[in-house]
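Deliverable D2.4 — example input (structure tokens):
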């Protein structure tokens, strides 16, 4: 502020001090905007590289499925779906666990970013669980000759899918953002109870599903590729969904603030005497 105590007639060289001041401020603004643009460009570059890598892994995984031998007794052509089914099932647990953590985070801190993460995780959980059920149905038809059997593992998996479908149905029905986030978080905690039930049904309850399958080296490499591709896809979808939710929420809050600020003068004029 001491700069403005000097007279506007003071010069730096041939230019007034105030002109130098404005030029310096403009230069600082350009520098900060430039840094912001670089940051955005850097983030875009990393995001693009991330999805290119994920896509290449999917292409490699599909290529490995094509060359992986399927003449073994335990692996017919339809059994190759196992390489997609298993990593997707595990990533379903990861997505549901992320929703659980985000729900705890929101209830603890009441920060809406946790709700953004929970919302994105719920959508990815439903997507992955749908893939698990569909691939499991195809595998079951080939292995058991029927599309569905009410085994403990399948039953708990279907319940898991229904619980998180309901989670997504509940959210848009609640208009208040804070109330929606609170109810969704409590429901998310309750729905997570089925995740350990699915896991324990795999480990503890006798089931018609094979508990383990022996893989030759080629199959192990194929499974490893899918265990890289699907988790990367899962993390990317959750991160992208969370970022989108945050931007949408910010836009809605800005719109609500602008609407309120436009209505305030009207209310003031309405209350004034004529």
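Example output (designed residues):
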């Amino acid at each position: 502020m001491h700069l403005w105590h000097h007279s506007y007639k003071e010069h730096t060289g041939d230019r007034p001090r105030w002109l130098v001041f404005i030029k310096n401020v403009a230069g600082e603004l350009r520098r900060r905007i430039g840094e912001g643009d670089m940051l955005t460009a850097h983030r875009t570059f990393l995001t693009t590289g991330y999805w290119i890598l994920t896509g290449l892994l999917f292409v490699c995984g599909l290529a490995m499925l094509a060359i992986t031998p399927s003449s073994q007794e335990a692996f017919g052509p339809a059994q190759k779906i196992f390489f997609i089914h298993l990593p997707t099932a595990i990533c379903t647990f990861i997505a549901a666990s992320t929703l659980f953590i985000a729900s705890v985070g929101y209830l603890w801190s009441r920060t809406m970013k946790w709700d953004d993460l929970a919302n994105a995780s719920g959508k990815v959980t439903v997507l992955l669980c749908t893939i698990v059920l569909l691939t499991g149905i195809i595998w079951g038809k080939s292995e058991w000759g029927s599309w569905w059997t009410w085994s403990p593992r399948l039953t708990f998996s279907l319940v898991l899918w229904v619980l998180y479908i309901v989670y997504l149905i509940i959210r848009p029905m609640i208009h208040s953002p804070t109330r929606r986030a609170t109810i969704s978080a409590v429901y998310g905690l309750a729905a997570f109870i089925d995740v350990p039930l699915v896991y324990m049904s795999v480990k503890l309850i006798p089931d018609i599903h094979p508990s383990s399958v022996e893989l030759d080296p080629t199959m192990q490499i194929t499974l490893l590729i899918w265990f890289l591709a699907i988790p990367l896809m899962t993390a990317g979808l959750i991160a992208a969904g969370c970022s989108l939710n945050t931007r949408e929420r910010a836009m809605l809050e800005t719109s609500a603030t602008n609407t309120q600020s436009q209505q305030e003068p009207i209310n003031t004029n309405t209350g004034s005497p004529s």
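The two ends are 45 Å apart (CA to CA).
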